[in-house]
Amino acid sequence: KSLAEQNSAHVAWDLLMEPEFVNLRQCMFSSACSRERFHKLLINVLIATDIADRDRIGREKLRWKNAFEGIENWAEEWKGKSDDELAKIDVSGKATCVLEQIVLASDIAHTMQHWLTFIKWNERLYKELWAAYRAGRAENDPTIGWYEGQIGFYDGYIIPLATKLKECGVFG
Fold it and tell me: pTM of the predicted model, to two decimals?
């Protein structure tokens, strides 16, 4: 599962570990622990872009529910708390969930931009899927149900994703 996403994480990490980026790594990581934490985060957010993995989607929905259920926005959760109380709130789960959603949005950003941008990237996706089908690497002809699939993608994925990003309140 998530082979393309795992490859992306591997390529990104290998590139960051090249000698010419030693100064960048020293700025990014104060310790081996922080480097390892970043590496895990990188893998997790890139794996999150595998929207075909139903199990992963289920786990992501559960994490979101656990992090945000019953909270209108972060301001409400933090309202009236002292600095000491605020310092004790563990926001790492929320931050990870929000970061995943931002990466998911960036992965399909063309769907929320100008029509010409949408068409450009959607056509490239179609051609990639068509080439895979013609070469025998994909079972389904992408032309069958393409339009309905696009509508379903908006209704079932893009709109809920945009709603989550709005509801978590990180963009104001």
Answer: 0.72
Query: Helix, strand, or coil here: 26?
Result: helix
Report the greatest alpha carbon distance in the chain. Answer: 62
Q: Which residues of the chain have pLDDT under 50?
A: none
Q: What is the pLDDT of residue 48?
A: 85
Q: What is the pLDDT of residue 71?
A: 64
Q: With beta carbons less than 8 A apart as the criterion, state whether 162 and 113 touch.
A: no
The half-sphere exposure of 4 on its side-chain side, counting CA atoms within 13 A, is 6
The torsion defined by the Cα of 116, 53, 158 and 170, in degrees rounded to 10, comes to -110
Q: Which two three-digit tokens encode residue 81?
A: 């708390």
Show Cβ contacts of residue 101 under 8 Å, excluding neighbours closer than 6 positions: 64, 161, 164, 165, 168
Q: Rounded to whole angstroms, how far apart are CA atoms 45 and 77?
A: 25
Cβ burial 123-135 (10 Å sphere, 16+ → b, else e) = eeeeeebeeeeee
Give residue 158's pLDDT: 92
Measured in residues, the chain has a length of 172
CA angle, corner 101, sides to 144 and 170, nearest 5?
140
